Prior knowledge:
Layout: E1 3-7, E2 13-18, E3 28-31, E4 42-44, E5 47-48, H1 62-71, E6 95-100, E7 108-111, E8 133-139, E9 160-166, E10 172-179, E11 186-191, E12 204-209, E13 215-225, E14 231-242, E15 248-252, H2 265-271, E16 273-277, E17 283-287, E18 293-298, E19 304-308, H3 310-313, E20 319-325, E21 331-338, H4 354-365, E22 394-401, E23 427-433, E24 441-448, E25 454-460, E26 473-480, E27 486-494, E28 504-512, E29 518-527, E30 536-543, E31 549-556, E32 564-570, E33 576-581, E34 586-591, E35 609-614, E36 619-626, E37 632-637, E38 644-648, E39 654-659, E40 666-671, H5 672-675, E41 680-685, E42 688-692, E43 709-712, E44 718-723, E45 726-733, E46 739-744, E47 748-753, E48 756-759, E49 762-768, E50 771-775, E51 781-788, E52 794-801, E53 804-813, E54 819-824, E55 837-839, E56 845-847, E57 852-854, E58 859-860, H6 906-912, H7 918-921, H8 927-936, H9 947-960, H10 981-995, H11 1005-1013, H12 1019-1024, H13 1027-1032, H14 1040-1049, H15 1053-1061, H16 1066-1079, H17 1093-1105
Antiparallel strand pairs: 1-2, 2-3, 3-5, 4-6, 6-7, 7-8, 8-11, 9-10, 11-12, 12-13, 13-14, 14-15, 15-16, 16-17, 17-18, 18-19, 19-20, 20-21, 21-22, 22-23, 23-24, 24-25, 25-26, 26-27, 27-28, 28-29, 29-30, 30-31, 31-32, 32-33, 33-34, 34-35, 35-36, 36-37, 37-38, 38-39, 39-40, 40-41, 41-42, 43-44, ...
Helix pairs in contact: 9-10, 10-11, 10-14, 16-17
Organism: Mucilaginibacter pedocola
Domain DUF6443: 2-122
InterPro entries: DUF4951 (IPR032538), DUF4951_sf (IPR038343), DUF6443 (IPR045619), Rhs_assc_core (IPR022385), T6SS_VgrG/RHS (IPR050708)
Amino acid sequence: MTTISYTDGLGRPLQTVQRQASPGGKDIVQAFSYDELGRERNRYLPFALTTTTGYGAYVANAHSVGVYNFYNPSPVPSPVQSQQGNGIVRTPKPLSVTGFEASPLNRVVEQGAPGEAWQLPDAGSPNSPWHTVKTDYSANDQSTFTSAISPNNKGSHLVSRYKAEILANGTRQLSLPGTYGTGQLSITISKDENWKPAEGCVGIVEEYKDKNGHVVLKRLYNKIKDGFNIDVAEMLSTYYVYDDLGNLAFVLPPKANPDAGMPTQAILDDLCYQYRYDARNRLTQKKLPGKGWEFFVYNKLDQVVMTQDANQRNKTPQEWLFTKYDVQGRVVITGIYPHPNSSGDSNISTPSTAVLTWLQDYSDQQTNLWESRTTANTTPGYTNVATPQGVVSAYLSINYYDDYNIAAKPANYAAPAGASSRTQGLLTCTRTGILGSATRMLWSFTYYDDDGHAIKTYEQHNLGGNTPNYNNYDAVTTTYNFNDAVTSTTREHFTISNAGFPQLTVANTYLYDHMGRKLSNWQQMKYRTMAADTKTLLSKIEYNEIGQVRIKHIGSTDSTNYLQNVTHTYNERGWLRGATTNDNLYNLDLRYNAPDNGIGPQYNGNIAQMEYFGKNGLNRGFRYSYDALNRLLKAQSNSGLMDETLSYDKGGNITKLNRTGQPYGELSYYYNNSNQTNQLATVLGAGFTTRGYSYDANGNSKTNGEGKFISYNVLNLPSTVTQGGSTLASYTYAANGEKLRNVSAADGTWDYIGGIIYQNGAIKFIQTEEGRAMPNGTGLYKYQYDLKDHLGNTRSTFQESAGIADVIQEDDYYAFGLRQLIKDNSSDNRYLYNGKELQADLQNQYDYGARFYDPVIGRWGSVDPLAEISRRWTTYGYAENNPIRNIDPDGMVVTDAYGNQHSESAEEAQQMFRKFKSEHDGDGPGDGWLKKLIAYFHIGRSQPRSTEEAREGAQLKEDLGVIKAAGDKWEKGIDDDVEYVPLVSGAWKMSKGMDKNDNKMFFGGLASGMIDGFGGFIGPEMKSFKIGEEIIQWGKGPEGGKQTIALLESLTKEGVEAMKTRGLEKRRVLEMLEQYIGSTNRPRVMNAKNSNLKPRIELLEKILKLWD
Length: 1108
C-alpha cells in the first residue's frame, strides 16, 4: 500500500494519491482546493483513474476535470441519478460546498452535500431555502413562544433559570427562581435539509450554553394539529440543571413540560433524571424515569465497589452487586452480596439510604483495597480482603490476567502450539456465572500469539442445563494475515456425549483483496468423525471503484455458479438506493428526495418511499410521512391493507396507532398517573382485547398485556413467563447477558451455544453469516440463505433445489415490525424483524439481547439500559419512532440509516466541515482512509444489509471516533455531564457482539470496549500509561456502565496518586494532552468539544491539576 501526498508551499494538501488502491488496481485520488482565504469551501469526492498506469503520479486538474469525468462521464443519459455501468452513481455535482460566516470567525453557516439536490449555490446563509444543513448563532432574549406558523416565527429564546441547591444531607433540591437575563446564554441553531423557511421555527434545533460552557437547554420545534385541525408549532424543551459544583443534578425532558413551570415531585420521579453526589463529587445515587433509585458505594481509590438497583433493594436481605479489583485496578471479581440483617425496601421514590450510608462508611475504613491471586484450588482463586468480605450469594464473573497459572484450570483447555508466554496485561481466563445459580460457572480461556492476537479460545457451554461439564466446550482456532485480518477460523464443538472428538466442526476461510477488502467467505461443516461436508462459498463480494459493495454473490460450491446475485445501487450521498436479485426473489427500491405518487420528498435521509417485490405475491409499495422530529406519522401501502397512522405525546410515547388489514385496528394508549409517566396502563381498541400493564421497581413490564406474567433476573432480562399458575417459559442467562437456554411448555427446550441452536437436545440449526445451516439427518447440512432489506429484516429465505434457488419462506412487516407471513416452509425460521428471534411464548415479542420488543404496540418492555444517551425521549420507545430509517441492534443504542450521523448542533457541524490537517495526511487513502472520506461526506448506506456489514459499520464508527447516540439527532455530551460517554462506546462494542448471531449481549464486551469508550482513537495511548489498563476493565459485568460513570465524574487526588504508583508519568500526560488538543482540529463528524476527545482532554487536565 503506497500513499503519496502532494502539498503546496504552505504545507496544505493539494492531492493525495494511493497507488493502485481501487478494486481494479487503479489509483484513487483525493483532490483539495482552497478559496482566497485558505478555506476549503469545495470538498470533492474521491475518484479512481481510468487506467492502471497512474503509478501514484500527480493528476493535473483533478478537482476541475478528473472528479467530474469519473462521476459524470460523457455522454450524459437521463436521469442523472442513474447508475453507471461500473456501479458508480452518476452525478454532475460530486462535491459538497461550505458557506462561511462573513466574519473573522469563519464559522460555518451552511453546508451542502454531493448531488444536485444538496448544492449550495451562493455564499451561504443560515436562512437559505436550499436543502442544506444550516447553522445560526445567537443569544437568549425575552421573546416568548407563539404557535402560529410563519416565516417570522423564530421560536422562543426565553429560558427558565432552574437551580439545584445542595442540601445538608447531600440531596439536590430543584428550584425555579426566574429566567435568564438577555444575553446570558449563547445559542447555536441548527436546521437540517428538510427545513422550510416558510415554516419558521418548525424543524429547528436550539442548544443553549451558559458562561461555564454547560448546556442548559436543548429546544426543538415540531408541527402538530390543534383542536381545530390547524397546523401549529409545538415547542419541546429539555433542561439540564447543575448544582453549584457543576455536577448535573436534574434533566427535565419535554414531557415534564419544564417551560410551564416547576415540575412537581411526582413529575420529577416519573419523567425526569435525578443525580446525587457525595462530598467528593462522586455519583452516589441516580434515578432514571420509570426506575427506582440506584445506589453506588466507593473505596478509597474512588473505584465503584458496590451498586444496588430498586429490585435488589426490595429483597430481604437486600442484595448488592459488588466489584473487586487487583493491584492494577483491573476488575477481577463481580458478584452478588446479600447485606446481613437488612430488610427489603419497596419505596421507589424515597428509599432509605441507611444501608448505603453504612456500607460507604465501612468502605471508607478499609485499608485493603484489592485482591491478589492465590494458589488454592477453590473459587474464586483470589484473596478475600477488599470490600465486601462477607458472604457471597453468587459470583457473576471472575477474571484472570497475565498468565495461565490457575489452580482449578481444567486439563481440557491446554495451550496450542505457537501460544505466547508474553501475556502480561492480557485477560487470559474468565469464569462467568449462570444466573439463578450460586455455584455454576462457565470457563473461558484465550491464548495469544506474540502479536497479541487471540489464536485459540476455549468456551465452556451449558448444553443440557445441568451442572457445567468440562467436556462441554467450543475450541476456536483463528489465523491472521499481516494486516491483522482474520483469514480462517475453525470451531470444534465438543459435548459430553462425544468425548474425544467434536460433535461438529465448522471451518471458515476468508479472502481479501490487496487493500484488505473482504472478498469471500468459504465454510465447511464436519459432523463427528464423518467425512467433511462439501465446502460452500457463502458469499463473494464485488466492489465498485470507490469501495462500495456492488454485487454480492450468494451460495456456491464452485465459485462460478451462484444461487443468487444481489446488485446494489446508491444515490449521490451513498445511501442505499436499491438491491435486486437475478431471479427476482427480493428486489428493493428506496427513494429519498425523488419519490413519486405525490408523497413529499425527504432530503435528510428519511425514506420517503419504499417498494419491494418477491415471489409468491410479495409485491408492496409504501409511502412515508414524518413530523419535524423525524418521527413516522403515516405509512401508506399501495394496497391499502398495511397502512399505519401514529400520533405521539411530548415524550415520544405513542398515543394512537391505527392499522389496516389486522385485528389491531385503532389502538389508543393510556399511561399511568393521568398520562404523566412513560409507563403504559392500558391499550384499547375496537375489536382488540384490552391490554393492561404493570411494572416492577426497575421499570420492567410484569405482564405482556394479555395475562402472561414476566419475572426478571438481575440483568433485567426475562426469567420466567407464567399464566394461571403454570410456567409457560423459563430463560437461563449467563451473567454477561448471553442467553443460554429457553424451556418452553409449548415449544420444547432450546439451548443457545454461540450460534449453534439445539432443540430438545439435538442440533436444530447453525447460524451462518448469510442465514443458517440445517442438519438433514445424515450428518450433512443444507444451507438456507436470507435476503434482507436495509433494516436487516428477513424478507426471503431460500435454499438450493436442483441447482436453483427455491424460496421456502417470505415475510412482510408493518412499519413497527408486526409480521405478515407470506409463505413458510423453512422449518420455522424465527430470526425475522431486524434479524431478531421471535418469542412464541410472549405473543411474538422479539429478543434483541438487552430488551424484548413488542411489535404489536411498538414499544419495549423494559427501560433502555442506556437511556441517558438521549434523555429527551421515552425510555420505552423503539428506534426513536422512525422504524423505516432506524434500527436498534441490541435494545440499547439507536442507529440511523447512515454509516455516520448528522450532528445535532452547529458547533459539531463546525468541526465536521474543517479541512484535513497535516497529521491526518499520513493516514493514506487506503481502504480505511477511503471509508473515512466517504463518512466525512455523509455517505453511507441506509443500514447494514447483513451481520457482516453491521460489524464493519461498527468498526467504521470506531475508526472515525464517532459514537452514534440516538436516531436522527445527536445527543451531545454535556460538558460537565460526561457520565454516559463511555457507556456509549462500550455499547457499540456490545452492538458489534449482538450483530453476531449468537445471542450474546456482551456486557463483558464493555470491558474490551471501554478503552475505546475512553477515547476513540486514543485508546492505545491510554492503555500505554496504565490508565487504559484500569479503564479497559472498568466495564466488566452487568454493572460496568455504572462503574464507568463514577470514574469519570469523581477522580480525586488519591486516584491520581494510585495511577502514579502504577506507572503513570506526568510527561506522558502532557504529551497526550497536546496530542488530543491538536486532534480537535481534525474533520470529525462529532465536534471534539462534545465527542470522545472532550472528556478525555478534561480528564487529562484534571489529572494535571491534581498531580502536585
